[in-house]
Each structure stands twice: as C-alpha cells, then as structure tokens.
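Now read these lines:
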Amino acid sequence: MGQTDQRAEGAGPFTTRLTWHPPGGGTATWESRPARRRGLITVHPPGTAAAHRDPADASVLTRLRRLNAIAATAFVIGGALFTTGAAIAQFGSGDATTCASVYFAGGLFFNTGGYVSLLQVVNAPRHTPGREGRLVAGRWRWWSYEPLRVDWLSAFVLFAGTLVFAVDLLDSFLQGLTVQQTNRLIWAPDVIGCVLFLVSGHLAFVEICHSHRPCVRQRSLGWWIVAVNQLGSVLFMVSALAAYTRPATGSLINTDIANWGTLTGALCFSAGGVLQHYERP
C-alpha cells in the first residue's frame, strides 16, 4: 500500500520538499536539509495537530553524526587559522611567508570540510517511495554525480571553491612575481573561489527556502548556519576585491579592508562550524 497525493515543492529543477499522505493517514513531510543532515521526516498523525519526527535507522544516524562532526570541526579550525593569518598580516607580527603558511594550513581544513560536506550529501539517507516514507541509506560511496539535487550541487560548488582557494594559497608562496603575475596567479583564483562560495551559499538558501526568493527563518538552525556562512563568503569577496594589486603603484587597493575582510569572514565560518555541531542527527 503506497503513499498518495504527493506534492512537490522547490525551485526550478530542484525538489526540496515533499508532502504526502501515508497509508495510515495524516501527512508526512520530507525536507532536503533536515533529512540529509538530521535523518528526519516530519509526520503529522491523523486527528492531531502535533507532529513527531520519524528518524532513519540507528546505523545511518551514527554515520551522519560522524560526518557532521568532522565537517563542522574542519570549518571551525580552518576559520580560526584564517583569522590568525589575517591578524598576523594586519598587525605586522610576522612576514609574508608566515602568513602564507598559516593560510595554507587553514586551507587544508577548508578542503577537508568541503569534501566531507559533499560526502554528507552523497551518503545521506533518501526518501524511498513505497517504504511508507522512511529514509533509507544505500552503501557507502566516496563520490556521486547528481547535479539535479540542489544539496549535491551546493556541496560540490563549495568543495570546488576550496580547491580553487588552494591554488591561490599555493601560489602565495611564490617570490619575485610581477604585478601582473600576482593578479593572475593569486588574486584571480581568490576571486573565483569567493564567487563559488557565494553560489554555494545561494543554492543552500534555495534548499531551505524552497524557492529562489530569499527567506528568513529565525527558528531554523539550518537557516542560521547558511546565513552566517554566506555572510562570511560576502566578507571574503570584499577582502578579495580590496586585495587587487594596482599595476601603476604595485600596492593593494586597500590593505586594511583586505585583512579585516578575511579576518571577519573567517570568524563567520568558524561560527558556522560551531552551529553545525548542533545540527547533528
């Protein structure tokens, strides 16, 4: 006996929320982020306004908890290291190589957080029609290609952004670069990485808001995590634009804005990582 009257919501080709009537009556709602992050489906039994959460299997929840903890911790540490690097650059307590080394270490943690975030999506439990709406997880996978899933696309773009940042951070160790080489090898990848972070954040909002239109959900922890991280991405972009080297003078547009943008943006990512620890299954 299968589910009936299924209603899909989302934006464009993306389905981010499904509502249906289970065989036993009442209504059930699957939402993309709570299902993949917390392993939950919301169920309203017949004859009552109260709702309860129908969780995935215990083994699946354990998997989700571990992935969430690793990703959250990686972003906390990565953000802390970027904050330290920006502080060193701003207050002059270290040379360029020291700053580059701290940033590079932070970048490795961002790479880890980005990839584990993608693994969270790849190995998240799925809503399977015909099983009374329960979440079912498949075998473990290290990769998948699912561009019509907004959660996968957001996580993939985020991971791609961390890899582009890695190019920027590696090139920052190069010495004796001309202004043109600096802008091409260091500044350009920085801006591209920031754009990818912003796109990933927009897709994360689409997943939560079930629409391309922005929304505010003050009682949603997931919304706050996405909002704080997106603020960090905006600050990173401000920093990147201010870090452009003028060909005529060989100096940055504004060193203070570049450093403070990185510092405050990195703090946002650390805060987002702390909040993510509480979004566990």
